[in-house]
Write a structure and sequence with these properties.
This protein has helices at 13-23, 38-46, 59-89, 121-128, 131-138, 165-180, 200-214, 238-249, 253-269, 274-285; strands spanning 2-5, 29-33, 49-54, 102-109, 146-149, 155-161, 187-191, 221-223. With 294 residues, it is α/β, with parallel strands linked by helices. The longest helix is centred in the N-terminal third of the chain and has 31 residues, at 59-89. It is elongated, with a radius of gyration of 29 Å. The relative contact order is 0.09.
Length: 294
Protein backbone atom coordinates (compact mmCIF):
# COMPACT_ATOMS: atom_id res chain seq x y z
CA UNK A 1 0.00 0.00 0.00
CA UNK A 2 1.29 3.48 -0.92
CA UNK A 3 -0.23 6.52 0.82
CA UNK A 4 1.03 9.79 -0.62
CA UNK A 5 0.29 13.49 -0.36
CA UNK A 6 -0.33 15.44 -3.55
CA UNK A 7 1.98 18.24 -2.48
CA UNK A 8 5.49 16.79 -2.04
CA UNK A 9 9.02 17.92 -3.02
CA UNK A 10 10.92 16.35 -5.96
CA UNK A 11 7.84 14.36 -7.15
CA UNK A 12 4.21 15.23 -6.47
CA UNK A 13 1.80 12.58 -5.25
CA UNK A 14 -0.06 12.16 -8.54
CA UNK A 15 3.20 11.61 -10.43
CA UNK A 16 4.17 9.01 -7.82
CA UNK A 17 0.78 7.33 -8.26
CA UNK A 18 1.35 7.25 -12.02
CA UNK A 19 4.81 5.70 -11.58
CA UNK A 20 3.54 3.07 -9.14
CA UNK A 21 0.64 2.19 -11.47
CA UNK A 22 3.03 1.71 -14.39
CA UNK A 23 5.74 -0.28 -12.59
CA UNK A 24 3.89 -1.92 -9.68
CA UNK A 25 0.20 -2.14 -10.67
CA UNK A 26 -0.60 -4.61 -7.88
CA UNK A 27 0.15 -1.96 -5.22
CA UNK A 28 -2.88 -0.25 -3.65
CA UNK A 29 -2.64 3.55 -3.91
CA UNK A 30 -4.14 6.26 -1.67
CA UNK A 31 -3.75 10.01 -2.28
CA UNK A 32 -4.08 12.62 0.49
CA UNK A 33 -4.76 16.18 -0.58
CA UNK A 34 -5.83 19.57 0.70
CA UNK A 35 -7.11 20.45 -2.78
CA UNK A 36 -10.75 19.70 -3.51
CA UNK A 37 -10.23 19.94 -7.25
CA UNK A 38 -12.14 17.69 -9.63
CA UNK A 39 -9.16 17.57 -11.99
CA UNK A 40 -6.92 16.08 -9.29
CA UNK A 41 -9.48 13.48 -8.32
CA UNK A 42 -10.11 12.62 -11.97
CA UNK A 43 -6.38 12.17 -12.61
CA UNK A 44 -6.07 10.00 -9.51
CA UNK A 45 -8.88 7.74 -10.75
CA UNK A 46 -6.92 7.27 -13.96
CA UNK A 47 -4.08 5.82 -11.91
CA UNK A 48 -6.46 3.44 -10.07
CA UNK A 49 -6.11 5.32 -6.80
CA UNK A 50 -8.59 3.66 -4.45
CA UNK A 51 -9.13 6.67 -2.17
CA UNK A 52 -8.73 10.44 -2.61
CA UNK A 53 -8.58 11.56 1.01
CA UNK A 54 -9.24 15.24 1.70
CA UNK A 55 -7.60 17.08 4.55
CA UNK A 56 -8.07 17.46 7.41
CA UNK A 57 -7.53 13.75 7.96
CA UNK A 58 -9.45 12.71 11.05
CA UNK A 59 -9.22 9.51 13.07
CA UNK A 60 -12.62 8.52 11.69
CA UNK A 61 -11.37 8.93 8.12
CA UNK A 62 -8.25 6.89 8.84
CA UNK A 63 -10.29 4.14 10.51
CA UNK A 64 -12.66 3.96 7.53
CA UNK A 65 -9.69 3.91 5.15
CA UNK A 66 -7.99 1.08 7.04
CA UNK A 67 -11.20 -0.97 6.98
CA UNK A 68 -11.47 -0.44 3.24
CA UNK A 69 -7.81 -1.33 2.63
CA UNK A 70 -8.08 -4.50 4.73
CA UNK A 71 -11.20 -5.59 2.83
CA UNK A 72 -9.38 -5.05 -0.48
CA UNK A 73 -6.29 -6.92 0.72
CA UNK A 74 -8.35 -9.85 2.00
CA UNK A 75 -10.37 -10.05 -1.24
CA UNK A 76 -7.14 -10.21 -3.23
CA UNK A 77 -5.78 -12.92 -0.91
CA UNK A 78 -8.96 -14.95 -1.41
CA UNK A 79 -8.80 -14.55 -5.20
CA UNK A 80 -5.12 -15.52 -5.30
CA UNK A 81 -5.70 -18.50 -3.03
CA UNK A 82 -8.67 -19.69 -5.10
CA UNK A 83 -6.64 -19.45 -8.30
CA UNK A 84 -3.73 -21.37 -6.77
CA UNK A 85 -6.01 -24.13 -5.45
CA UNK A 86 -7.72 -24.46 -8.84
CA UNK A 87 -4.37 -24.78 -10.59
CA UNK A 88 -3.05 -27.24 -8.02
CA UNK A 89 -6.09 -29.54 -8.26
CA UNK A 90 -5.85 -29.39 -12.06
CA UNK A 91 -2.25 -30.58 -11.84
CA UNK A 92 -0.77 -27.24 -12.93
CA UNK A 93 2.36 -25.83 -11.30
CA UNK A 94 1.94 -23.50 -8.33
CA UNK A 95 4.44 -21.67 -6.16
CA UNK A 96 6.42 -24.03 -3.96
CA UNK A 97 7.50 -23.59 -0.39
CA UNK A 98 4.24 -22.06 0.81
CA UNK A 99 3.13 -22.50 4.41
CA UNK A 100 1.60 -25.82 5.48
CA UNK A 101 -1.71 -24.32 6.56
CA UNK A 102 -4.24 -26.34 4.56
CA UNK A 103 -6.17 -29.56 5.13
CA UNK A 104 -7.58 -31.55 2.24
CA UNK A 105 -10.86 -33.29 3.04
CA UNK A 106 -12.27 -35.93 0.68
CA UNK A 107 -15.91 -37.02 0.95
CA UNK A 108 -17.55 -39.97 -0.78
CA UNK A 109 -21.20 -41.00 -0.48
CA UNK A 110 -22.80 -44.18 -1.75
CA UNK A 111 -20.99 -46.72 -3.90
CA UNK A 112 -17.66 -45.17 -4.88
CA UNK A 113 -17.18 -47.46 -7.87
CA UNK A 114 -20.46 -46.63 -9.57
CA UNK A 115 -20.85 -44.61 -12.75
CA UNK A 116 -21.39 -40.91 -12.09
CA UNK A 117 -24.75 -39.52 -13.19
CA UNK A 118 -26.83 -36.58 -12.03
CA UNK A 119 -29.44 -39.07 -10.79
CA UNK A 120 -27.17 -41.41 -8.83
CA UNK A 121 -28.07 -41.62 -5.12
CA UNK A 122 -24.79 -39.90 -4.22
CA UNK A 123 -25.37 -36.94 -6.54
CA UNK A 124 -28.98 -36.62 -5.43
CA UNK A 125 -27.76 -36.48 -1.81
CA UNK A 126 -25.05 -33.88 -2.43
CA UNK A 127 -27.51 -31.75 -4.43
CA UNK A 128 -30.03 -31.89 -1.58
CA UNK A 129 -27.78 -30.28 1.05
CA UNK A 130 -26.04 -26.92 1.37
CA UNK A 131 -22.49 -28.16 1.94
CA UNK A 132 -20.84 -24.70 1.73
CA UNK A 133 -23.11 -23.39 4.46
CA UNK A 134 -22.53 -26.46 6.65
CA UNK A 135 -18.77 -26.12 6.24
CA UNK A 136 -18.87 -22.41 6.95
CA UNK A 137 -20.56 -23.02 10.30
CA UNK A 138 -18.29 -25.79 11.60
CA UNK A 139 -14.88 -24.84 10.17
CA UNK A 140 -15.20 -21.06 9.89
CA UNK A 141 -11.80 -19.44 9.31
CA UNK A 142 -10.06 -16.62 7.45
CA UNK A 143 -10.78 -18.18 4.05
CA UNK A 144 -13.98 -19.89 3.01
CA UNK A 145 -13.64 -23.59 2.11
CA UNK A 146 -12.87 -24.42 -1.51
CA UNK A 147 -15.19 -27.17 -2.81
CA UNK A 148 -14.52 -29.23 -5.93
CA UNK A 149 -16.65 -32.10 -7.25
CA UNK A 150 -14.52 -35.04 -8.31
CA UNK A 151 -14.60 -37.22 -11.42
CA UNK A 152 -15.57 -40.29 -9.40
CA UNK A 153 -19.16 -40.99 -8.41
CA UNK A 154 -20.16 -39.08 -5.28
CA UNK A 155 -16.66 -37.69 -4.62
CA UNK A 156 -16.07 -34.17 -3.29
CA UNK A 157 -12.77 -32.51 -2.43
CA UNK A 158 -12.68 -29.66 0.10
CA UNK A 159 -9.62 -27.51 0.79
CA UNK A 160 -9.72 -25.97 4.26
CA UNK A 161 -7.49 -23.21 5.58
CA UNK A 162 -6.47 -24.09 9.13
CA UNK A 163 -5.04 -21.70 11.69
CA UNK A 164 -5.52 -24.43 14.30
CA UNK A 165 -5.28 -28.12 13.42
CA UNK A 166 -7.25 -29.15 16.50
CA UNK A 167 -10.04 -26.66 15.73
CA UNK A 168 -10.30 -27.77 12.10
CA UNK A 169 -10.38 -31.49 12.93
CA UNK A 170 -13.11 -30.83 15.51
CA UNK A 171 -15.08 -29.06 12.79
CA UNK A 172 -14.61 -32.00 10.40
CA UNK A 173 -15.87 -34.41 13.08
CA UNK A 174 -18.95 -32.23 13.63
CA UNK A 175 -19.59 -32.10 9.87
CA UNK A 176 -19.35 -35.90 9.68
CA UNK A 177 -22.03 -36.32 12.35
CA UNK A 178 -24.28 -33.77 10.66
CA UNK A 179 -23.98 -35.52 7.30
CA UNK A 180 -24.72 -38.92 8.85
CA UNK A 181 -28.00 -37.50 10.14
CA UNK A 182 -29.00 -36.51 6.60
CA UNK A 183 -28.43 -39.75 4.65
CA UNK A 184 -28.65 -43.52 4.84
CA UNK A 185 -25.91 -43.89 2.24
CA UNK A 186 -22.51 -45.16 3.42
CA UNK A 187 -20.35 -42.09 3.85
CA UNK A 188 -16.57 -42.09 3.78
CA UNK A 189 -14.59 -39.01 4.80
CA UNK A 190 -10.79 -38.89 4.73
CA UNK A 191 -8.65 -35.89 5.65
CA UNK A 192 -4.97 -35.04 5.44
CA UNK A 193 -2.59 -33.39 7.85
CA UNK A 194 -1.44 -29.82 7.30
CA UNK A 195 -0.05 -29.35 3.78
CA UNK A 196 1.07 -26.55 1.47
CA UNK A 197 -0.88 -25.81 -1.71
CA UNK A 198 1.78 -27.35 -3.95
CA UNK A 199 1.08 -30.70 -2.24
CA UNK A 200 -2.63 -30.67 -3.05
CA UNK A 201 -2.61 -32.85 -6.16
CA UNK A 202 -0.39 -35.57 -4.68
CA UNK A 203 -2.40 -35.53 -1.46
CA UNK A 204 -5.66 -35.80 -3.43
CA UNK A 205 -4.37 -38.94 -5.13
CA UNK A 206 -3.38 -40.40 -1.76
CA UNK A 207 -6.80 -39.71 -0.26
CA UNK A 208 -8.60 -41.06 -3.33
CA UNK A 209 -6.58 -44.26 -2.95
CA UNK A 210 -7.52 -44.39 0.74
CA UNK A 211 -11.22 -44.12 -0.13
CA UNK A 212 -10.97 -46.79 -2.82
CA UNK A 213 -9.29 -49.20 -0.42
CA UNK A 214 -11.30 -48.49 2.72
CA UNK A 215 -14.85 -47.41 1.78
CA UNK A 216 -17.27 -49.84 3.39
CA UNK A 217 -20.35 -51.32 1.75
CA UNK A 218 -22.84 -50.75 4.53
CA UNK A 219 -21.14 -48.49 7.09
CA UNK A 220 -19.81 -44.96 7.26
CA UNK A 221 -16.43 -43.91 8.59
CA UNK A 222 -14.25 -40.90 9.23
CA UNK A 223 -10.57 -41.59 8.58
CA UNK A 224 -7.80 -39.33 9.81
CA UNK A 225 -4.27 -38.76 8.58
CA UNK A 226 -2.25 -41.51 6.87
CA UNK A 227 -0.92 -43.10 10.04
CA UNK A 228 -4.44 -43.92 11.21
CA UNK A 229 -5.71 -45.58 8.04
CA UNK A 230 -6.41 -49.30 7.97
CA UNK A 231 -7.61 -51.27 4.99
CA UNK A 232 -9.62 -54.50 4.83
CA UNK A 233 -8.68 -57.60 2.86
CA UNK A 234 -10.79 -59.27 0.21
CA UNK A 235 -13.94 -60.76 1.78
CA UNK A 236 -14.67 -63.41 -0.88
CA UNK A 237 -13.14 -66.67 -2.09
CA UNK A 238 -12.43 -68.22 -5.47
CA UNK A 239 -15.06 -70.82 -4.64
CA UNK A 240 -17.73 -68.16 -4.27
CA UNK A 241 -16.80 -66.73 -7.67
CA UNK A 242 -16.98 -70.21 -9.22
CA UNK A 243 -20.38 -70.93 -7.66
CA UNK A 244 -21.85 -67.66 -8.91
CA UNK A 245 -20.42 -68.22 -12.40
CA UNK A 246 -22.02 -71.67 -12.48
CA UNK A 247 -25.36 -70.23 -11.42
CA UNK A 248 -25.19 -67.54 -14.12
CA UNK A 249 -24.27 -70.12 -16.77
CA UNK A 250 -27.22 -72.27 -15.68
CA UNK A 251 -29.50 -69.21 -16.06
CA UNK A 252 -30.80 -69.91 -12.55
CA UNK A 253 -31.93 -66.47 -11.39
CA UNK A 254 -33.06 -67.69 -7.98
CA UNK A 255 -29.70 -69.33 -7.30
CA UNK A 256 -27.83 -66.24 -8.49
CA UNK A 257 -29.91 -64.05 -6.18
CA UNK A 258 -29.42 -66.41 -3.22
CA UNK A 259 -25.64 -66.72 -3.65
CA UNK A 260 -25.17 -63.01 -4.20
CA UNK A 261 -27.37 -62.24 -1.19
CA UNK A 262 -25.31 -64.58 0.97
CA UNK A 263 -22.13 -62.81 -0.16
CA UNK A 264 -23.58 -59.40 0.75
CA UNK A 265 -24.63 -60.67 4.18
CA UNK A 266 -21.12 -62.02 4.73
CA UNK A 267 -19.58 -58.72 3.71
CA UNK A 268 -21.96 -56.80 5.93
CA UNK A 269 -21.10 -58.97 8.95
CA UNK A 270 -17.36 -58.58 8.31
CA UNK A 271 -17.55 -54.90 7.33
CA UNK A 272 -16.66 -55.70 3.74
CA UNK A 273 -15.22 -52.95 1.58
CA UNK A 274 -16.66 -51.60 -1.64
CA UNK A 275 -13.41 -52.53 -3.35
CA UNK A 276 -13.89 -56.19 -2.39
CA UNK A 277 -17.37 -56.28 -3.93
CA UNK A 278 -16.10 -54.52 -7.05
CA UNK A 279 -13.30 -57.06 -7.43
CA UNK A 280 -15.73 -59.95 -6.87
CA UNK A 281 -18.09 -58.67 -9.57
CA UNK A 282 -15.22 -58.02 -11.92
CA UNK A 283 -13.82 -61.54 -11.39
CA UNK A 284 -17.26 -63.01 -12.04
CA UNK A 285 -18.09 -60.97 -15.13
CA UNK A 286 -14.65 -61.49 -16.69
CA UNK A 287 -14.74 -65.25 -16.15
CA UNK A 288 -14.33 -66.90 -19.54
CA UNK A 289 -17.44 -69.04 -19.04
CA UNK A 290 -19.83 -66.09 -18.94
CA UNK A 291 -17.90 -63.10 -20.37
CA UNK A 292 -19.74 -63.52 -23.66
CA UNK A 293 -23.16 -63.66 -22.04
CA UNK A 294 -23.23 -60.33 -20.22
Amino acid sequence: VVITDVNMPIMDGLSLAAYVEQHHPQVIKVVVSGYQKFEYAQEAIGYRVVEYLLKPVTKQKVAALLDKLYAMWHRRKVETRTQEITRALDGQPVRTGGPAENILLMLSAGFYWGAETHFSPAQVFWNSIDLPSMLGKVVADSFRPYISHGQINGEIAVVLYSHSLQHTIAGIETLYQQLLAKTNLPLTMVYSGLISLDRLMDTRRELQSAIRRSALLFSSQLIGDAAERQYGNAQYTARQVDELVRAVCAMDEALVARQFGQLLEQMRDKEGTQQSLYRFLRSTIHDGRISGRI
